[in-house]
Amino acid sequence: MENILKAELLKNSEAILKKAHDLSPSYQSAMRNAQLHFDSLGIPSKKNEDWKYTSIAKNLAPRFYDQQESIIHDLPKNIIDQRGMIIFNNGIFNKFLSVLPAGVELDALCIEANFYDTFDSLNFGVALSPLSLKVLKNTVLDFPISIIHLVDDVGVNKIISPRLTITTHENSKVSFLEFFTSTSKNKLQYTTNAVTKFNLLPNSQIEHVKIQSEASEAVHIGLTEARVDRDAIFKSMTLDYGNLTARHNINILLNQAGAQTSVHGLYALKNSEHTDVFSTITHVAPHTTSEQLFKGILAGSSHGIFTGKIIINKDAQQSASSQLNKNLILSKMAHIDTRPQLLVHADDVKCSHGATVGQLSKDEEFYLESRGIPKEHARRMLCMGFGMDVILKIENLAIRKFAETMLIETFKSGALLN
Amino acid sequence: MIEIKNLHASIDANGETKEILKGINLSVKAGEVHAIMGPNGSGKSTLSKIIAGHPAFNVTEGSITFKINAKDRNLFELEADERAKSGIFLGFQYPVEIPGVTNFTFLHEAFNETCKFNGAPEMNASDFRKFLAPKLELLEMNESFLDRPVNTGFSGGEKKKNEILQMAVLNPRLALLDETDSGLDIDALKIVAKGVNALKSRYNATILVTHYQRLLDYIVPDHVHVLYQGQIIRSGGKELAFELEEKGYEWVIKEFEEKNLTRS
To answer: Are strands B2-13 and B57-68 parallel, antiparallel or unpaired?
Structure first.
């Protein structure tokens, strides 16, 4: 598949760049460079330590989505507040349906030359509709902005490449719900290769909740990246409700003193679903803090992977970081690999980490049963509670409610608990 | 109401089977309060857990019958949740913490499951909140307890009050209170006792499992039983509790062992 995709890119390189005619010549040449970068790196195999548990090449879609215009006209469901919505259809920004609230404006596109990985390069090289936004100084929104990525039939067998960069200026505070989904939950086969990058300028705050709910046969590769400046706060939550294969790359840089982040998440997997979370938090500057709680619920023959890298640079004295990965295994066939990786180069820091893998507690089950709640119902409540513990960390109440409803739906389907 | 006959039970631990109860006989009638006392490791907690249906124990001999709708039912035919919905309540010595499930959801689900089982109408969330208000007041609990995860971060006293709140919601016919007084300061103990006493009626019964006599100053038993090495070695009225408080368990145990010696 690697060769097919490379050949496909080589064949279509010119055509893709031609379709990018709205973009500036310098941006187009950066795209060309990114394509070459992807070509030289290729698709990682399991020999690559960072991809040890996921063979990503085998299920990737063989073609690039290369239409420029969005053809979806109906507002997707799942919008939680119509005052703020950014809609991508098959990776193409839909400017007709999107609504930017006051204080959020289009920004100049950033010409990038340094990429997180091969998929970031690929995305930059083929994304025909990159979007860059800025949140103006002092903008504080009490309603969330929904970023909806919707894939429909036209996206079948294609690589969907949405690219979004958001810069928040001083004293702004915004919550985003980024939702990846499709018009049909079951049949569609496609690959999303999404990149969402945040630049938090000093004293700004972002809450970003990503929900991966792609079609069950889809592959999702997504990068959430944030550069956090002085006294800025980035709160990240990644919720994965399962599909064929998902890889979440999370890359947070605490760039200046006083920068803070929380990088939480939950994966709730069933059947043969496969989700690989690869999180990197780098404390670059002193007095920076990070906390992380990732939980997993694994049923059926699903496979979850959590890699949590915490890097504390030599200069990042007086920094604090805590990490916890807790997994609930509901079946004998389910599997979890958890890898905490701490690289601490400073001596005056506080770090803690832990990982647990366990089953539902018999004592907890009996406690609920002794109150009249039947065993099946008790187990469902306990699993829900295990997940809710993470969801309750979402600050924006509308987003929290939405995430909670999705968790309940996931459990209603029953597949998690048979 | 409940009739325990020659109950033997064991637990499997570390590949070994250990017999914990060795022939318990106990009969409790509606309106009565029984106290089961005894030194640590005598099997007190096991007895209450077996009545409530804890899966860790194997009943090897004997029977427990419980009156449901005026009929004697074999308790072992009922799952733990069915026993609860039929009117048996176990107040835990160590209430379990359940992060992520709010107290309100927990109580509401438990209440509605019980209503459904007994053919009574279920209650919606807002009515249920109103239904809870006087019960919270009785136990001097703040309404904010409802929105916190079950027992998570509760103090020892708060956990025990929360047990009695659950009891007040489920209104059982037989309440088994396992070491409800442990870990309580005197103020919390008084509140818990006030709650238990308020829920007492001539239609329900209470079995208090306790190591100390202290609780019995506030909840007065009609009958006191001493459990030792899986057997009830002595029964009496409330004065037995005072005697135990004064002289300790040693003399009862000694008397029991002497009796056994002469028998053999």
So the answer is: antiparallel
Among A4-13, A269-278, B109-118, which is the least confidently predicted range? A4-13
Count Cβ atoms below 10 Å from residue B152 Cβ, excluding itself: 17
Computed from CA positions of residues A42, A44, A47, A49, in that sequence, does the dihedral angle turn out positive or negative? positive
DSSP sequence for B64-102? EEEEETTEEEEGGGS-HHHHHHTTEEEE-SSPPPEEEEE
CA–CA separation, B123 vs B142, rounded Å?
A: 22
pLDDT-derived band at B212 (thresholds 50, 70, 90) equals confident
A362 Cβ under 8 Å from any chain B Cβ: yes
Section A92-110 average pLDDT: 94
Choices 1.10.3730.10, 3.10.20.310, 3.40.50.300, 3.30.70.260: CATH for B2-96+175-263: 3.40.50.300
Q: Which of A322, A254, A264 is nearest to A288 (CA)?
A: A254
For chain B, say whether A111 makes contact (Cβ under 8 Å): no
Write out residues 389-418 of A within 8 Å (CB-CB) of B: 389, 392
Q: How far apart are CA A322 and CA A351, in angstroms?
A: 6
Helix (H) or strand (E) holding B63: strand B57-68
A358 in reach of chain B (CB within 8 A): no
Parallel, antiparallel, or unpaired for β A63-64 and A131-135? unpaired
Q: Which two tokens stand for residue A55?
A: 């063979």
> Of B84, B100, B105, which is closest to A392 when you measure between CB atoms?
B100
Percent above pLDDT 90 for chain B: 71
B124 Rama sector, left if φ>0, alpha if ψ -120 to 50, beta otherwise? beta
**Length of chain A measured in residues:** 418
pLDDT tens-digit series, residues A386-395: 999 999 999 9
Size of interface A-B (CB pairs under 8 A): 80
Domain residue spans of chain B: 2-96+175-263
A381 inside 8 A of chain B by CB: yes
Q: Which two tokens stand for residue B116?
A: 């459904």
**Among B204, B104, B91, CA closest to B112:** B104
CB within 8 Å: A368 and B149: no
- Of A138, A101, A126, A154, residue with least CA distance to A34: A126
The encoded tokens of residue A281 equal 């938090």
Tell me how far apart the alpha carbons of residues B100 and B239 are, in angstroms, rounded to a whole number: 46
Cα-based angle A148, A238, A162 (whole degrees, multiple of 5): 35
